[in-house]
Each structure stands twice: as C-alpha cells, then as structure tokens.
Amino acid sequence: MKTAARGGAAIAALSVLFLAGCSAPADPAPTVTVTVTATPAAAAPSPTASAAAASALPLGEAKAFPDVTVTAHEFRPDSTPEPAPQPQTAGDRWASLDVEVCNTSSEQFTVSGNPWSLVAADNRTYSESSTGYDQFPQPRFAFGDQAVEAGMCRRGWITFVVNGDATINSIRYANTSGNIVRWTP
To answer: Does 127 reside within a domain?
Structure first.
C-alpha cells in the first residue's frame, strides 16, 4: 500500500509538470499606446472694461445704500481752469467730477473726496488732487472731512490729476463701509 500511495503522488506530480510543460508559452500581451489630447478648461475671463461698463450706472443715476445715497452727476475729462496753474507733471491734466452724497441715516456722518476715483482704460486709478485752486469748478465738494447731518446732502466738484493720455472709462465710489458703485462717464 505504501507503493500505491507513492505511485499516486508521483503520477500527480508528473501530471502537473507535464501539463505545465505542454502548455505553449503565452505570447506577451500586445503593447497598446494611448495618446490623449486634453484641452485645459478655459480660465474664467478676467473682467474687461466693457464688462465693467455694462454693470456701471449712467451719469446722473443715484445709487442707494442702507445709510447713504450717492450720485455722480457730471464728468469733465479736461477741466483745465484758466488762469490756474497746470498740474506739476508735464502732460498731466485736470479732470473734474460733480458728485452728491446724501445722508439717509438717522445720525450725522462725514464725507470727503477719498471714496471717489476715476478709473482709466488701462486700469490705473486716479484719486482726488491734493492741490486746490479757486479756479477749479465750484462749488467744491468736501476737501477733507465735512459733516453731513441726517437727512441732508452735500454736492460739489472734485478735481483729479490725470495722465494726459488716460482714457477714463469709469467713475468709482467705494467707502469704508464696503459700499461700491461705478458710473460710465
């Protein structure tokens, strides 16, 4: 009986070897090259002058916020007064803006020209001139902080020094409370 058990084990081992040796070697799997051409997703377009202009208000239209209503009434891109001196830098020019701020809150607050700016087509921003002349358009808006009582308004002209080649494409009001609005000149 021992021989039969050994003989069966030997036959089984030989069968496994025989079958392994009889099988044909497998052909290597064919190599497949996949080329994927991907187009990156388009980046969100940056705001353009035309997009900013599309959301801007026309001159003369008021914008109401919770405690203040603001209006840019008129823009003069070249308001060179005579005989006032010209801007210090050759090629610069004066530009003036007629603005109004109304206090719709129940308390007095102060206004100044600081929230107002002119934005050129090349995205350069121009702030109120630090120089004032009597020849600038009158009445002058607040030069420095000026009080406006509850329910009252303040209207006047702000003058800016602008690069002579600049094309102003928007007027911007942005106060410290986060109220922001634009007008198209």
So the answer is: yes
